[in-house]
Write a structure and sequence with these properties.
Layout lengths: L7 E4 L6 H12 L2 E4 H9 L3 H25 L4 E4 L8 H9 L2 E6 L2 H7 L14 H19 L2 E4 L5 H12 L1
Helix pairs in contact: 1-7, 2-3, 3-4, 5-6
C-alpha cells in the first residue's frame, strides 16, 4: 500500500534535470509524475513567465506554495519542484515531511551551457546567464542541502547515469 512517505521530490537549480529525470524515474517505478510549474500553468492557463510578469515573483511564489501543498499530499508520486521552491520555509518543511527529497546538484557553468538558448525562464532574462546562475546557486545551495535526503551530482553526466545513481540510493 503506497503512502505519502513513498513520495519522491526533486529540488535543484533550473536546468538541473528535475523534470527529465523525474519523468523517467516515475515511469520506471510506476509512480505518477508531476511538475510544479506545469501544474500551475495547467491550473491558470498561462505560462510561468506571464505569472511572473503580472504578479511578480512574490505572487508566483504564493501560487507555488499552494501547489506544493496540494501535490505533496498525494500518495506515491514523483514531483519536480521549481528551482526557487526551497526559498520558502513552508515549502522546505512540506517537502521534508512528506517524502524523500533528491537534490540534483549541477554547477552553474554546466547549467549555463545547457540553458544558453532558453527563453522560458524569467529569472534568466536578466543580465549575464552564468553570473545569474552563480548568484542563484550561492543563495539556494544551502537550502537545497537542508531539505535533501540524497544529493546527486548532475553536472555533465548522462541522464541514464543519474537515474542509475538515484535508483541505487533508493534501494
Amino acid at each position: 500500500m503506497a503512502t505519502i512517505n513513498d513520495n519522491i521530490f526533486f529540488v535543484g537549480l533550473m536546468g538541473a534535470g528535475k523534470t527529465t529525470v523525474g519523468k523517467l524515474l516515475a515511469k520506471k517505478l510506476k509512480k505518477t509524475f508531476f511538475d510544479t510549474d506545469q501544474e500551475i500553468e495547467k491550473k491558470l492557463g498561462v505560462k510561468v513567465a506571464v505569472i511572473f510578469e503580472l504578479e511578480g515573483e512574490e505572487g508566483f511564489r504564493k501560487r507555488e506554495t499552494q501547489m506544493i501543498d496540494e501535490l505533496t499530499q498525494k500518495k506515491d508520486i514523483i514531483l519536480a519542484t521549481g528551482g526557487g521552491a526551497v526559498l520558502s520555509e513552508e515549502n522546505r518543511r512540506m517537502l521534508k515531511e512528506r517524502g524523500k527529497v533528491i537534490y540534483l546538484n549541477a554547477k552553474p557553468q554546466n547549467l549555463a551551457k545547457r540553458m544558453a538558448h532558453d527563453k522560458d525562464r524569467p529569472l534568466l532574462q536578466q543580465g549575464n546567464l552564468e553570473e545569474t546562475l552563480n548568484r542563484l546557486y550561492q543563495e539556494r545551495h544551502p537550502l537545497y542541502l537542508s531539505v535533501a535526503s540524497f544529493v546527486v551530482d548532475t553536472g555533465q553526466q548522462k541522464t541514464q547515469t543519474v537515474l542509475n545513481k538515484i535508483e541505487a540510493l533508493l534501494k
